[in-house]
Amino acid sequence: MATEAQILANRLNAQKTTGPRTRQGKAIVSQNAVKHGFLARQAVISSENQADFCLYQDRILSELAPESPMESMLSERIVILSWRLKRVGRIQNQTIDALNARNTSSPLTKLTKSLLFKGWDLPQADSSESAHDLALGRLAIKDFSNARVLDRLLMYERRMEHSLYKTLLELQRLRLMRKLDTESEMPFNQ
What we know:
Elements: H1 4-16, H2 23-30, H3 50-64, H4 69-102, H5 107-115, H6 128-133, H7 135-143, H8 149-185
């Protein structure tokens, strides 16, 4: 627990900071919290295609066919959670590839090279196309400071899956309740 003197010193030091002053500095600082995109406010991050998301969203919403505002809200949540779940899988693959590219002396890399036909090479980590393909994986490694990066990615995946399944169950429960209400309002045929 901080003492009164420490709290006072922290408050005085906080008043000395000025933050970014230029437009460029403010733009950079505004992205400080954006790292891997799992918790991004927007559904589509810069490395993804907005048109692909819109097509995906249309397909899922047409399948779910929400009939009320609450069902629409739950359906939108399902779309976003499932899109982010797809992102996690992509980032996991890129992270494994980025880790493998950094470790050229690993037994897995040696085995892969030995199985390739002569003249074929593994993609090099420094090629611009390869670097772009592994951008999200490298960001995840950097963000998690190499510390159990795959464990952390798996943790995010489990959390998103849990939230997705919970939302799906809530949508099903809501539909079941509406169906039961509709059936109870119907007169009995005698």
